[in-house]
Amino acid sequence: MPAPPVTGAPAQASSKATAPVDSASDSKTANALAARRESVTVADQATKSEVKKAAAAEEDGVKLREFVEDDGHFSLVRNFRLADVVTLGNGFCGALSLFSAAQYMITHDEKFLWRALSYPVAGFIFDALDGKVARWRQESSMLGQELDSLADSISFGVAPAFTAFALGLRTPLDQLALLVFICSGIARLARFNATVALVPKDKTGKSKYFEGLPIPSSLLMVAGMAICVTRNRFEGPHGQGQGLPWGLIEPLKNALGLELHWVALVPLGWAAAMISKTLRIPKL
């Protein structure tokens, strides 16, 4: 049987189907879509971050009201968290360092001097643990930040300065240098409490850097004092030790009659680094 004849024009493909693919146009479209998705993701993250901050602020407000409205005699103690107790351990060690340095000056027994140098190190361990305990317990305290700063000022400010005094920095200018060191440490801690929210944060919410040298860095000064004691380079009471390294600044003494030890320049430099605005120490 013969095949039926073919009528009409042969079928042709659509012009859109046969047109060449515009790769440049597709690439622009893909990039635009990717940029849009990225902007939406960033906006979502920003919104979530704002929600978390608002929730945290509300929670802090509730805790503050609970603390203020509690009229009990020991309400302060009842509002302590475990992390706050650990922070108080830091201040406890700082106070023990002060007592030990005073005992050394009274008894001239070097074992108290070594205790005075050791207690700030123990305080640093407590200082490092309190944040970990707070995260582990998933709890915070309105008093926590203030307690931390106050304890740090004792363990890493007052205690090292008083130990340096016991080791021989006892001239009026030496004492002035130590006072500048202590006050700079306190000012640095106050600035941290006031501006920590403004320092750029990483993805975990932690500050990316410290403004100025953190006051716990004074443990390096404590280590230097320990080396001086080991080498008998200090000026203890009643002639103990062979004198501080490098002695007095003789040009200053000869010109103005003022006595300042070369070693006293170390706490002065430390003070300047702590209150510096431009010095930024990355957080590890």
UniProtKB/TrEMBL annotation:
It catalyses: a CDP-1,2-diacyl-sn-glycerol + L-serine = a 1,2-diacyl-sn-glycero-3-phospho-L-serine + CMP + H(+). The keyword Ribonucleoprotein does not apply. It comes from the Eukaryota. Keywords: Endoplasmic reticulum, Lipid biosynthesis, Lipid metabolism, Membrane, Phospholipid biosynthesis, Phospholipid metabolism, Transferase, Transmembrane, Transmembrane helix. Its main location: endoplasmic reticulum. Pfam families: CDP-OH_P_transf (PF01066). Residues 1-30 are annotated as: Disordered. It is a multi-pass membrane protein. GO terms for cellular component: endoplasmic reticulum membrane. GO terms for molecular function: CDP-diacylglycerol-serine O-phosphatidyltransferase activity. It is found in: Endoplasmic reticulum membrane. InterPro entries: CDP-alcohol_PTase-I, CDP-diaglyc--ser_O-PTrfase, CDP-OH_P_trans, CDP-OH_PTrfase_TM_dom, CDP_ALCOHOL_P_TRANSF_CS. GO terms for biological process: phosphatidylserine biosynthetic process. Pathway: Lipid metabolism; Phospholipid metabolism; phosphatidylethanolamine biosynthesis; phosphatidylethanolamine from CDP-diacylglycerol: step 1/2. Its EC number is 2.7.8.8. PROSITE patterns: CDP_ALCOHOL_P_TRANSF (PS00379). Belongs to the CDP-alcohol phosphatidyltransferase class-I family. This is CDP-diacylglycerol--serine O-phosphatidyltransferase. The lineage of its organism: Eukaryota, Fungi, Dikarya, Basidiomycota, Pucciniomycotina.
